[in-house]
Every structure is written in C-alpha cells, then in structure tokens.
C-alpha cells in the first residue's frame, strides 16, 4: 500500500490562479461523487448497487462519467497530508476494490482551504469538499454529488445523461418561476403546456431575468449579460450550471429551520436566496469555483441545501430543477387521475405564484414550531427522511418492475 500512487487533495492552497472563474475550456466529462465516511458499513446490497453503478457510468460510457468516493474521516486530529497516515487510514476505511476511486478528507483539510468560514461540518457545508475536489480534478466540466443512500431504478448513466440534456434545452424565460414549483403530470398534457402556463402567469416581464436585482449589493455577478426580454429562447442550448432534483424555493418566510442561517453576507436580512431539499445536484466547475472564491475571500456561507442554489441566483447562472417521478404510498381522495393531481397540487403548493412550493410552512421543510407541516411526505419515494424509498427499492431488486425512479433515502440493509 505504501508504494501505491494515491489520489490526494493538495496539501497547500494555491494563490487562486487555478480557481479562475473565466476559464471556458470544456472536456465533456462529468464526475459522479459518492459522499461517504470512514466508518460506513457496506451491505451486500449496497455493494451490488455500487458495482452496477460504476459499470453503467464509467465503463459503459467510455469514460464520459467517472465515479469517485469522497470519504469524510471523522477524526480531525489525523494529519491526512502525511503519506503513511493517509495510506493507513485509506486501507482501514475503504474496501480494497474501491481504493482507486476513493479520496480522504477531514475538517482539518477544509479549515486549511477555507479559514475564514469557521464551519466545516458536512451537514452545513457539504459543498466545501466538492469545491476542493473540483480544484483537484479540473478536467471535469460537471460534478454530480450523490449520497450513499440514493438509488436509481434504471440505468444511472442514461438517467443522468437525460437530466443534463433536458436541462440544456430549457429556456431561461421564467425559469426561476418554473423552478419554484413541482411539475405534476396529472395536471398538464406535457411540460411544454406547464411552461406555457407559467409564462402566462408572469407576462409583462415580471420574472427574474439574469442575476437577481439585489445581487450587486452582495457580489459582482459573473453570469452572462442577459439579452433583451424579447429573446424568449435565451438559454436554449446552454448547459445548466446547476441541476437539482427538487424545486428551487425561496426560504424566506417559510419558517424553515435554517431560514436564518446566513454568515458573512451583509445585510443578511435581504440576501436573495434559493434552496432545494437534499444536496444531490449537478454543479459546474465554474459554479464551484465561484463559491470557493467567495468563501476563501470573505468566509460568506449559507447551509448546504442553499449553497449552489443561492450562488446561481446571485450570479445569474442557469439553474434547473429537473422533474423526476416521485411516488407517494398513500390514498388520495378523488376518483380520476386529474382529481388526484389536484390533491397533490394542494399538498405541494402553499406559497405565492413565484415561489409556489415555498411559502409559510412549506410542505416539505422542517419547521421548529410545527415539525413537518405535510406529513404525507413521509410516504414519498424521494425525501430526506426514510419514507417509501426502501420498500420500492427492495421490491425492485427482487424483480418487481417499476418506472425509472430516483429513490432516497434507502438506509436499511
């Protein structure tokens, strides 16, 4: 093991030149990073899933995707810049078959990279390690971040590829307003009809166009200069700098637990923000560099679920919520599919038109005063609590046919 060539995070930060946000080169490659920790227990089912995922992503696509494991070592007293210690901890923390795809880090490394931030835990700052990863491997245009308890009932490479292609086709016109609500198929003939409806709601140029109007008070927006609003096809063919798997909502006035968690931005009260539940996203190299640059310069931060979303909003980058099928294991009143769709609409959408999935006590957010406002989320196949995802996964792995689904979390062994 001591003679092995190991992937490592750099031991020292550079002068910032390698984090230039003006770099435009592309390679067409995407990293898929699994977030785990050194004491993680791998079940047989977990191992089978990981082997299948690596085959589908890295091998079947000829290297278009490449899978990595980002391993959080909980002991911050360990010097992971020491070759012997690093090799020893890697051998103890990662199964032999995954040694070539694993990178170790701990909060001590993050503190060295971002000394002004002051917060390095994965719950609040999950993207710091991803930022350093992107610096270490600049050959990847994009990084998909997946949690170890996520599952896909379908070919992972196909699903992630289709998500990127679909996001690329989306126009920027009223994109933030579409992002702020769930797409419910039972209520619309197609996504195109849904999109046209949102355009009608926000006629007379009421939607966000480019960076948020207040962004200039907090940062120097680095996104593309928006054309005249008559260019309704602006953004079509443009890669999304951020892809989320849940609506991008404004957390202000939702009473979300982390609504007031803002550090380094002044005045914090008026900071334009967005957030998306579950930090499983595709982020671009440029977006990760913009976040890293600001955190290194000023130490400004918001919590994980709001980090790439807020920076995309401030800089005017293209961010897209990609709808995917979410199953609910519950009885819905109503006899027709459309009636059931209206009931879901009532359950999911409680906010104003521009932030329909948000608003006070948004259904999917944990609020200290009431807990979870909409308990039917506990029966969903995609959420941050263990709902119906484990049942769907075990039935799928036992031969039951199902639609292609993104499942989360699947924690049982």
UniProtKB/TrEMBL annotation:
InterPro entries: DUF3405. Residues 10-22 have a biased composition (Polar residues). It comes from the Eukaryota. Residues 1-22 are annotated as: Disordered. PANTHER family: CHROMOSOME 19, WHOLE GENOME SHOTGUN SEQUENCE, MAJOR FACILITATOR SUPERFAMILY TRANSPORTER. This is Glycoside hydrolase.
